[in-house]
């Protein structure tokens, strides 16, 4: 996939989120995300890849303003997101940057029809629409995500839909808000392999035809390669490699990226990482300096325990954080 060169739609600088753990008076902190710089451009799909515990979902919740950053900044269309305070402005932002969750059934109220769910969202995010206009918009977004006949779908309840159909409804909800960027948190991980490709194709279609950007969170490198323009690899709360998808997967520089790829002889095949293949990321509580991957890294040197490696550019847009394979400066 080619990558757009437009100015960033959303970007972060030094984005950090720590969680206090251990009781009321504890000073111990879990470092979920540390010092993250990322940029998402119009009509672009950025995949954030890593194991459970790498900080991927925390990033999405920071961008959605579910969590507030401990430090750093998020800018949307050049405006600091931290300046959004009023309820009206917060609704507008969350309409422009909605989330599609991992579990499609959990995000739908089982006692209400699909039509009610969609129209309720439209009342919040497009209050000027009449009832007839809301119904027409609900029909439009259902058809846009491949759910037809749309008027029959409106009358159904979530339990009457398959997992893939419910996930498409999640995308329809997001689409009805007129979004610029959708935060898709593991949207295919709970679906059968045979259904995943359809949802990934839907994301690519919405990006190409509707101009919507996506932050696609996944542990599946194969699906990231299939759908994403660029990849950001996270490990234990830090970005360890980023760049155009094919460049990163063809010539991975960080040992962790290589480890992820080594679990999949064919990178286009579906994968599920487990402790048996790769071990687990550390639970990063009050870490000191040094590379967080060093205890699992076959290339670790003394410097890895002393200095946190910065992202160093290897080629245009391709950077990695490793003292051995991508030394800075």
Structural class: alpha/beta
Largest sheet: 8 strands, mixed
Count of extended strands:
12
The top-level CATH class of the domain at 10-42 and 51-84 and 220-320 is Alpha Beta
Q: So, the CATH homologous superfamily of the domain at 10-42 and 51-84 and 220-320?
A: P-loop containing nucleotide triphosphate hydrolases
Strand content: 15-25%
What would the average pLDDT be, to the nearest integer? 89
Measured as a percent range, the helix fraction is 25-40%
Distance between the termini: 30 Å
Total helical elements: 11
Order of helices and strands: EEEHEEHEHHHHEHEHEEHHHEE
Please compute the radius of gyration using only Cα atoms. Answer: 20 Å
Strand order of the largest sheet: 6-7-8-3-9-10-12-11
CATH topology of the domain at 10-42 and 51-84 and 220-320: Rossmann fold
Task: Please characterize this protein's 3D structure.
- By secondary structure, the protein is α/β, with parallel strands linked by helices.
- The chain has a domain at 10-42 and 51-84 and 220-320: Rossmann fold (3-Layer(aba) Sandwich), CATH 3.40.50.300.
- Helices cover 32% and strands 21% of the residues.
- It is built from eleven helices and twelve strands.
- It has helices at residues 56-63, 87-96, 114-125, 131-144, 150-154, 163-176, 193-210, 221-227, 245-250, 255-262, 275-278; strands at residues 10-20, 29-40, 45-49, 71-76, 79-80, 99-100, 181-185, 213-218, 230-235, 238-244, 312-315, 318-320.
- It has an eight-stranded mixed sheet with strand order 6-7-8-3-9-10-12-11, sandwiched between helices. The chain has a four-stranded antiparallel sheet with strand order 2-1-4-5, covered by helices on one side.
- Helix 3 (114-125) crosses helix 4, helix 3 packs parallel to helix 6 (163-176) and helix 4 crosses helix 6 (163-176).
- The radius of gyration is 20 Å and the shape is globular.
- The protein starts with 9 loop residues before the first strand and ends in a 9-residue tail after the last strand.
């Amino acid at each position: 996939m080619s990558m757009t060169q437009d100015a960033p739609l959303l970007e972060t600088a030094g984005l950090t989120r720590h969680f206090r753990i251990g009781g009321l008076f504890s000073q111990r902190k879990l470092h979920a995300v540390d010092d993250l710089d990322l940029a998402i451009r119009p009509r672009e799909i950025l995949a954030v890849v890593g194991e459970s515990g790498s900080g991927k979902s925390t990033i999405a919740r920071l961008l959605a303003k579910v969590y507030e950053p401990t430090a750093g900044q998020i800018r949307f269309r050049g405006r600091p997101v931290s300046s959004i305070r009023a309820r009206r402005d917060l609704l507008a932002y969350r309409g422009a940057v909605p989330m599609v969750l991992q579990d499609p059934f959990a995000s739908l109220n089982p006692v209400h029809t699909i039509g009610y769910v969609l129209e309720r969202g439209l009342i919040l995010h497009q209050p000027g629409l009449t009832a007839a206009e809301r119904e027409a918009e609900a029909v439009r977004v259902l058809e846009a995500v491949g759910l037809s006949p749309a008027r029959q779908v409106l009358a159904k309840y979530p339990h009457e839909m398959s997992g893939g159909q419910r996930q498409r409804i999640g995308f329809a909800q997001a689409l009805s808000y007129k979004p610029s960027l959708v935060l898709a948190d593991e949207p295919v991980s709970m679906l059968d392999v045979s259904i995943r490709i359809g949802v990934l194709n839907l994301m690519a279609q919405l990006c190409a035809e509707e101009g919507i950007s996506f932050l696609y969170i996944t542990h599946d490198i194969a699906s990231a390669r299939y759908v994403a323009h660029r990849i950001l690899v996270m490990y234990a709360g830090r970005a360890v490699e980023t760049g155009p998808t094919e460049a990163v997967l063809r010539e991975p520089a960080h040992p962790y990226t290589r480890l992820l790829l080594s679990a999949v002889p064919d990178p286009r095949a579906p994968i599920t990482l487990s402790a048996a293949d790769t071990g687990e990321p550390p639970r990063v509580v009050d870490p000191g300096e040094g590379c967080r991957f060093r205890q699992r890294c076959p290339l670790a040197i003394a410097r890895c325990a002393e200095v946190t490696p910065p992202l160093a550019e290897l080629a245009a847009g391709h950077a990695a954080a490793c003292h051995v394979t991508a030394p800075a400066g």
